[in-house]
Every structure is written in C-alpha cells, then in structure tokens.
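Q: Can I borrow your eye for a moment on a structure tokenisation matter? Would you mind producing a protein record, from residues through to fold? Write it directly below this note and I will take it from there.
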Amino acid sequence: RPYQVDTFWDASSDTFGLFLVLAMLYPVANLIRRLVLEKEKKIKELMFIMSLRPTAYFASWISVYGLMYLVLAGVLTGVSKINLFVYSDLSVIFVYFLLYLISSIAFCVFISSILDNSKTALIVGLLLFFVGYILFAALNTSSIPAA
C-alpha cells in the first residue's frame, strides 16, 4: 500500500504541543520556585557577598537544568520520532526540543528576576507559561484556509 492514513497520529499531532506544555509545567514550576526561594531567603545575596559572580550563579542553574533538559530532549525526540515526526531528521527534532527547553530556563530566570515572593512567582510564572501556549494555539494559522 503506497499511502496509508493513520487518523490517531493526525489527531494527536494537533495536541502534541499541549501535552509538551503540560509536561513542562512541573520542571518550570520547580525552577521558578527554587530561584525565587534563594532570592527570598537571601541566599543569592549571601553568595554574591562571598564574591560569587552573577555569571557563575546563572551558569550553575543553566548547566544543572540544561543537563536534565538534554536528557528530556533525547526522550522527547525518541518518542516523537516513532510516529509523529516520521519524515523529519532526528537531529533537527532534537535541536528543536532542546532549544524549546532551554528557552524555558530563560523564561524561569526572567520570572525570578522580576518577582520576590516564591508563591507569587510560581503562580504568575505558570500562568504566563500556559497562557503563552493558549495564545499560540489561538493564533495558529494552520486552520485558516488559503485564499
């Protein structure tokens, strides 16, 4: 059979982004909470007093979560390559997921830099993270017919 229609993967490809965002809510919440909690308890300030440079501080967070997200990007690539992105190059899928996950680290650092209370930062950060996907889904132009 030269052409086969698989309706399950056609339907799930539309919701894959939602599942990815939902899967990322816990790591994003954990990173925001930890970053703001360090600032709230003045641990970050104490490290700076002990002559820690800000680049080393943020590099430590980026490297810890970057390594975790490197593994997660590999798992997501393997799972999505099975039936979702069958005709895409494996390295392109991996880089796509890795860049998305690293951008979530930058988002968490951004939220932690503007809010001082860990509970408030957690709620605002998760709401903005989820609203970002909702806006993307609402403005997705793939459902608009071509002229």
Summary: The two ends are 33 Å apart (CA to CA). The chain has a mean pLDDT of 88. Residues 7-137 form one domain.
